[in-house]
Amino acid sequence: MEECMSALPGSVGAVTPQAFHFEAPLPLQSGASIAGYTLMVETYGSLNADKSNAVLICHALNASHHVAGYYADQPKNIGWWDNMVGPGKPVDTNRFFVIGVNNLGSCFGSTGPMHTNPATGKPYGADFPVVTVEDWVNAQARLADVMGIKQFAAVMGGSLGGMQALAWSILYPDRLQNCVVIASTPKLSAQNIAFNDVARQAILTDPDFHGGDFYAHGVVPRRGLRVARMIGHITYLSDDDMAEKFGRDLKSDDYQFGYGVDFEIESYLRYQGDKFSDYFDANTYLLITKALDYFDPARHTDGDLTKALATTKAQFLLASFTTDWRFSPERSREIVKALISNKRTVSYAEIDAPHGHDAFLLDDSRYLNLVAAYFDRIATELKGVSA
Amino acid sequence: MEECMSALPGSVGAVTPQAFHFEAPLPLQSGASIAGYTLMVETYGSLNADKSNAVLICHALNASHHVAGYYADQPKNIGWWDNMVGPGKPVDTNRFFVIGVNNLGSCFGSTGPMHTNPATGKPYGADFPVVTVEDWVNAQARLADVMGIKQFAAVMGGSLGGMQALAWSILYPDRLQNCVVIASTPKLSAQNIAFNDVARQAILTDPDFHGGDFYAHGVVPRRGLRVARMIGHITYLSDDDMAEKFGRDLKSDDYQFGYGVDFEIESYLRYQGDKFSDYFDANTYLLITKALDYFDPARHTDGDLTKALATTKAQFLLASFTTDWRFSPERSREIVKALISNKRTVSYAEIDAPHGHDAFLLDDSRYLNLVAAYFDRIATELKGVSA
């Protein structure tokens, strides 16, 4: 792997996922529990002697444990945050031991709806228990236990990943030094939930969904997944960015006066929908959107986010993007305000970027430099790190 | 009818639609033409002696010729702009002769996809020619000819109806004194088109759509229509209004941890989708969204809206609503700016209203008073009107 790293400066090189199996039942927020489950994990960099340099990266809706690098047999399969994590990158794997973990219920190797339900001997399907952000965090904490990590240097994520980081700071205040929450929100708005529910309805009403048991029927609810992804994708991009990239550009010279493709934006969205329906699991889409909808740490403090964050101990970095209308800067500011009311140390940046919600995944030097500077500070504060 | 009017002050009372049949083929922008078609029409008030007090009301996506009043056998079936049109209302039927017309291709009585294609003897289905805003305006002009109306006191509409009013001012500059364009846009943005295309894809991929020939199969693509309407509905409301009306309110005491209804907003949207799929035609949805996508009067003037509006002669009233993110005030301002560059007389109001795009249909005293004042001015300028 060292050779690959030198061959590809800035990349962690070829990586290999590991499966961690957990026999003990994990109690879930719903009251159900799940036993005998597997989490798929990737790590980059080396854990230092006192195990103080670990960084946990939490993923959003359609990502996975494959955060950085590539697979030897799939050189084009690059990790989803490869611009953020690697040697010399903002989260520098020369200094940090970085962990990516695929969440329970996802469809990239960790136990999910397509796996066998031990109670029935058949795939879980829609019976896979609805899991929450807090459930995922509890599962991640067990993984940390197994890895011997008592406290993370940082827990970090964007969007739904940022919710997990925030939940870590509430549920396990002593287990993270820093909490990095990017393009996230303390809870979904009615409009956010509305978009998620339309997407779910498209899947649930697809005749090929078969109540979630489509595996047994040898079909996939592609139509529903495709529409769901198209809706989602619109909310990930900014209006301005779409106007800039596609505008009213036509695929052909003139209007077609039919229901094929007229505009480039149609072609792009349909392609995104088709691609997504090739690889994503419909039951996973349902349960992950539910985890998004349910996240609301202030729900048990009468809507008071300051109270909900009162037990946190970490230092915080938050970042938002001006054109993100899915989770707008205002939502990040609510978190910042609640943390400041609790006298927490908070760094916050509102980054002027044209790319909407997706900006958290893209190259933007101000954004990447901000994260780099924050992790530089963490690195210098670490004991036993060879800087 | 006079008795009904006095029984229900402010309402035009019970109304009866009329069918106007046109034998001569109407040439369409696509190059196709349609012959032997019917337009459903309602009128309110009386045409004056010199036929100068006629006001044409153009409808948006899911509305019709039924603008005001009710049907004697359906007293709850109130016209869609009944708060705007009636005796003593902003468009005062004591002074104006108001015409509502259902557009070609719609599903409320005018010739549309569910009617028999004379060429095949079967319903048109998806073969109904794709019509444009300009085609509708040409059909409306023929109706005006038959009614003996050479010039309208005003042509008026909101949203897609506003596009028709604007197209009137370009295509028939001598046939309208005033053009009233509310909550509209000179063209759809990439994001607008994207939402329309996802909705169309939901319908087109519904197995019950049968390529548009679902009539012959005795089914309706309800799943697709339902999802299409849910998507549309999200774009009609403002984020703030949804937050205010629904927030994160639950239907029950707690999360359900399943895929039924958790949140009030889900219940509301699904209800809207169900209701819509009961009455709206899927082929009509497709073609009306295409008419929206295609509207772009500056397309043949190299994108220069000022040039596109150079031949207009009408006086203009435009209004937009601050929280309308479908057709934002900025889009109305583009029209205003282009009109002013052409030295047209323009009144423009940006109304601070919380209800998003739907505000153009709702009661808001500033908005209704604005329109009332504008039509007062028109009335005083009319010759031969008994004021």
UniProtKB/TrEMBL annotation, chains A, B:
Active site: 159, 324, 357
Catalysed reactions, as listed in the record: L-homoserine + succinyl-CoA = O-succinyl-L-homoserine + CoA
Molecular function GO labels: homoserine O-acetyltransferase activity
Site (Important for acyl-CoA specificity) location in chain: 326
Pathway: Amino-acid biosynthesis; L-methionine biosynthesis via de novo pathway; O-succinyl-L-homoserine from L-homoserine: step 1/1
Keywords: Acyltransferase, Amino-acid biosynthesis, Cytoplasm, Methionine biosynthesis, Transferase
EC number(s) recorded for this UniProt protein: 2.3.1.46
Chief location category: cytoplasm
Positions with a binding annotation for substrate: 229, 358
Protein location: Cytoplasm
Family that this chain belongs to: Belongs to the AB hydrolase superfamily. MetX family.
Subunit structure, interactors included: Homodimer.
Protein name, UniProt field: Homoserine O-succinyltransferase
Source taxonomy: Bacteria, Pseudomonadati, Pseudomonadota, Betaproteobacteria, Burkholderiales
